[in-house]
Amino acid sequence: MFQVFAHIMKWMSIPVLLTASMFSYTAARYEPLLVAVVMLGAMALVQQAVHSGQYCWAAGLVAIVVAFSPLFLATKIFLVMGLICMATLAALVAAFHTEPVPVSEA
What we know:
By secondary structure, the chain is mostly helical. It has helices at residues 2-22, 31-51, 55-67, 73-95. It has a domain at 2-69. The chain is flat and about 75 Å long. The longest helix is centred in the C-terminal third of the chain and has 23 residues, at 73-95.
């Protein structure tokens, strides 16, 4: 029952986050609050996605968090580039990780 509820909430929260992010710049004085809600919602979903092993969802949600962070644009670009480089390095290390060959007795 909890898995079904979590699955429904995940699929409902993504359109809500995207809709809130579209209207965040028209929210006038409530913009910082709306941006904080979008970031906190995405962070909560990142934690749940990592916990359930859905790393592609987590990567997309991290991009949402970085895009709506209050950092300068150049800082955001370098932060995303750094995250992409770390993910690429982790994938390469996992791909080229060698397993020891068992020695068979002749």
